[in-house]
Amino acid sequence: MITSGEIRAARAYMGWTRQQLADRAKVALNSVTRMEMEQVDPRLDTLMAVRRTFEKHGIEFLSVVESREGIRIRQKSDRATKR
Asked: What are phi and psi of 65, to 5 degrees?
């Protein structure tokens, strides 16, 4: 599953505020904040909503595909627009 560090890195790459991520993923701002600060074990559906939102915009999470922490950007031909 994705990590708090990966969420922060993906959000920084996209140039999104926590509020923008929450709006795009349709989750509560408080949930995003608490996930990033590791203050809670997030609900699976919340974590999946965040993951799908980033993946829709071309982010791959290495913890999912390679069992190590980090993010990478899919090839340009596979990417949706950043914003």
From this structure: -95, -20
DSSP 63: H
CATH code of the domain containing 47: 1.10.260.40
In a domain, 83, yes or no: no
Can you give the pTM of this predicted structure?
0.82
The 3 state secondary structure assigned to 3-57 is CHHHHHHHHHHHCCCHHHHHHHHCCCHHHHHHHHCCCCCCCHHHHHHHHHHHHHC
% of the chain at pLDDT higher than 70: 90
> For residue 19, what are the domain limits?
4-78
Tens digit of each residue's pLDDT (9 = 90 or more) over 41-79: 889 999 999 999 999 999 999 987 777 889 988 876 444
Q: Give the total number of structural domains in the chain.
A: 1
Inside any domain, residue 51: yes
